[in-house]
Design brief:
Length: 630
């Protein structure tokens, strides 16, 4: 075994070795391999200060040769490749350009670990899942710059991810619907085209993903479109609410105009992507049947009204030449069994479950229905300043095994951005790469220690091997979520009605207060302090290619620590904690203000301004409210 990401299926050491300290050339049998060869040449140059010559043809013009060869069958399985490290030659072979590209990534990782002299070996490898994807929310807060999206694609490609989806509600500049995206720093059509091209060259399928039924918050807040809301309210006059944008705002499927709107945005968006797929989402239609369609839903079989609109949206995507994908939660939980056999066999269900015990999304029903599907775990960073790694590790590895058992076509690892998208890319990178590891080699999920070692060495360049341990400590599931904190000052009447009675001394929901424990919060904060110390120590000597990762993780630890402190302050003010170590309200509120300033700087290094102002205002309001409680 060798610590690579992903772990190769078969690795055998030999007695030979290959030195990069010499006249090395890279020989291609297909000019389309140039990009892969250039990445390899740059890695070699960074270690030896000598850049290999890249040539096309059969004859080698130097003694030390790295051959990249397509058109070679090297075994069964998805994306199979072979790497042979001999005394004076390295041969990377595979049937397709993508296969050889993945072999090159493995060699680059070997060079990263071993340096200028490579141990002889033979690697024969292939992937367990045909599709290995990453799903990235760019709509609930952070809209990345195009340069940052390029950087993300480079990282994904290096670890053999071959599908990327960007979740969009209102962050694309639709030509006919400026009222949806105005003021939200959207991506343009030109930028999507450029990103699609960038992905294609790195063997990543950029799949469009648009909300088209539920989660239509910003669209339905427009005065032009609020009449299409299932719930009959003047949505644009309601105060913006993190809670409502997650829990409400579903299109009214009984209005022809709803389908016309969806048709217009899909028909504009779809041609920008070369992918044959289109994710229409259609998840969490929480309001359906609670407003204008109550009578229809009550008279129908469970899920009948939902399926009728779902199938219409699917037909729109097919007419655009795309195979529809859709989230599977409503199918599993809200559709009558007698209707499930109507699910089309060409559309791909995205079966999500973000729990540690897989208590939400069962894959067997899709398998039994003979419906193609992906399993969709999550990095568990949403509503967190730093990801809940404790839950994510279990979720990602277990769902990969479930997907393999029930023959899922792919694994799509998700990164949502609920309530302002606090989880910067650095705080979820560990989970992102774990998804890459197990979607290629499911069995490797049994050895998280090996993954930690590879993560430290390959991605963080942390010779002290402290980073992964810090992430585990910071990612404890006992820390207080941002959902709990942000709900404190959310004025949504629906939330107030649903969450129950409030504490008269703090105005915090009693249900939330009763779930808190001083002992647990103190223990969680100690882990965050330990994680911070380890990250600071690792940062001193580590040399990651992405220089922002440590800053993002450190700010994430600070934000999580503040959440815990706010919760402890609530317990004290409510009389539920009698500790002698009282929290100074003014010190806490000023810490929040200072944190807002630091987070502002981190946000803008990768992202457009986008929704930072909403997060900023929430933090400053928190500080002011704590001052008032003093």
């Amino acid at each position: 075994m060798i610590d690579l990401i992903p772990q190769p299926k078969r690795f055998r050491k030999t007695k030979s070795s290959f030195s990069l300290l010499g006249d090395v050339s890279i020989l291609l049998n297909d000019r389309e391999l140039l990009l892969a060869a250039q990445g390899l040449a740059s890695d070699i140059e960074s270690i030896t200060s000598m850049r290999p010559a890249i040539r096309v043809g059969e004859a080698a013009l130097s003694d030390l040769v790295i051959e990249l060869k397509t058109g070679v069958e090297v075994g069964s399985g998805h994306d199979a490749y072979e790497v042979k490290v001999l005394n004076q030659k390295i041969i990377i072979s595979g049937e397709t350009l993508a296969n050889v590209f993945y072999g090159v990534q493995t060699l680059r990782q070997l060079i990263s670990i071993q340096g200028s002299v490579l141990t002889g070996c033979t690697i024969k490898d292939s992937s367990d899942f045909e599709v290995r994807g990453f799903y990235h929310d760019i709509t609930r807060g952070m809209v990345p710059t195009l340069e940052d999206l390029y950087s993300l694609v480079d990282t994904l490609a290096h670890y053999k991810i071959n599908q990327l989806q960007l979740y969009v509600e209102h962050t694309f500049a639709f030509a006919k619907h400026v009222d949806i995206w105005g003021g939200n720093d959207p991506l343009s059509a030109e930028e999507i085209l450029a990103l699609d091209e960038y992905c294609a060259k790195r063997h990543i399928d950029l799949v469009p993903s648009l909300t088209s039924f539920g989660h239509f918050y910003m669209g339905l807040r427009s005065p032009r479109k609020e009449h299409l809301n299932e719930i009959d309210i003047e949505a644009g006059k309601q105060e913006y609410s993190f809670y409502n944008r997650m829990a409400h705002y579903t299109l009214d499927p009984s209005q022809a105009e709803s389908l016309s709107l969806v048709k217009e945005i899909i028909e504009e968006y779809a041609p920008l992507f070369r992918s044959k797929y289109f994710n229409i989402c259609c998840d969490e239609t929480f309001d359906l049947g609670k407003g204008k369609n109550k009578e229809r839903v009550d008279k129908s079989k469970p899920g009948a009204v939902y399926l009728e609109f779902l199938f219409k949206v699917m037909e729109v995507t097919r007419n655009c030449g795309k195979t529809p994908q859709y989230w599977g939660d409503i199918i599993l939980h809200d559709v009558a069994d007698s209707l499930k056999n109507k699910l089309p066999k060409d559309a791909i269900a995205l079966n999500w479950d973000y729990s540690s015990d897989l208590s939400f999304g069962a894959s067997k029903p899709f398998h039994d229905l003979k419906v193609p599907f992906y399993v969709c775990p999550g990095v568990c960073g949403w509503d967190q300043w730093i990801a809940d790694t404790e839950t994510a590790n279990q979720n990602i590895t277990k769902l990969a095994k479930q997907g393999q058992k029930y023959k899922a076509q792919g694994l799509l690892n998700t990164n949502w951005g609920d309530r302002g998208h606090l989880n910067t890319i650095g705080t979820v990178t560990y989970g992102m790469l774990l998804g890459a590891a197990v979607s290629w080699n499911v069995k490797s999920g049994n050895d998280l220690l090996a993954f930690d070692n590879a993560f430290n060495q390959l991605h963080m360049k942390d010779d002290k091997k402290l980073t992964a341990k810090a992430i585990q400590l910071a990612g404890n599931k006992d820390k207080v979520t941002w959902r709990l904190i942000s709900n404190w000052l959310d004025s949504s009447q629906t939330m107030i009605k649903n969450e129950g009675e409030k504490c008269p001394k703090t105005n915090v929901f009693l249900r939330d207060l009763n779930a808190l424990s001083r002992k647990t919060l103190v223990a969680s904060s100690k882990k965050l302090d330990q994680a911070t110390e380890l990250l600071m120590a690792a940062k001193q000597g580590a040399k990651p290619k992405d220089g922002l990762l440590y800053d993002e993780m450190l700010v994430g630890c600070e934000g999580a620590r503040l959440n815990n402190s706010i919760a402890l302050f609530w317990l004290e003010k409510s009389g539920k904690s009698k500790s002698k170590d009282k929290i100074n309200a003014y010190e806490l509120s000023d810490s929040i203000r200072k944190f807002e300033h630091r987070f502002r700087a981190v946000w803008h290094k990768r992202n457009r301004p986008s929704d930072f102002w909403r997060v900023s205002q929430k933090l400053l309001d928190l500080a002011e409210q704590i001052d008032r409680l003093k």
